[in-house]
Amino acid sequence: MTTISISPAQGTWVVRAGGAVIGESSRALELAEGDLPFVIYFPREDIATALLDATAHKTSCPHKGEASYYSIMSKSKTYANAVWSYEDPKPEVAAIKGYLAFNVQDGVAVEQV
């Protein structure tokens, strides 16, 4: 059984795409799942959602439920399916409902400030 823990992320976190800050939060959550690296989930209201474009991509996690995806539309590039959210997560992880997580990649960074 995979253990999942969700706790308030310490400090303030930012997400950058294409060099621009698209979100900053001191209310982010840290999700740790088994041996995987932790993931920072941002409250939706702390992200410039006008830069996100919903896609048809979905994935399913046996522990968290179905994830919906968004692309980030930066000035220089589109980062396809770089953001995910659990709109109706399983009860054990209900705290992340509606929060946004980012796929860290070349051009997309999540950092503590």
Automatic annotation (TrEMBL):
Residues of the DUF427 domain: 14-103
Pfam family, one: NTP_transf_9
Gene3D superfamilies named in the record: Domain of unknown function (DUF427) (2.170.150.40)
Endpoints of the signal sequence: none
Membrane-traversing stretches: none
Protein name (record): DUF427 domain-containing protein
Provenance organism: Tropicibacter oceani
Highest classification ranks of the organism: Bacteria, Pseudomonadati, Pseudomonadota, Alphaproteobacteria, Rhodobacterales
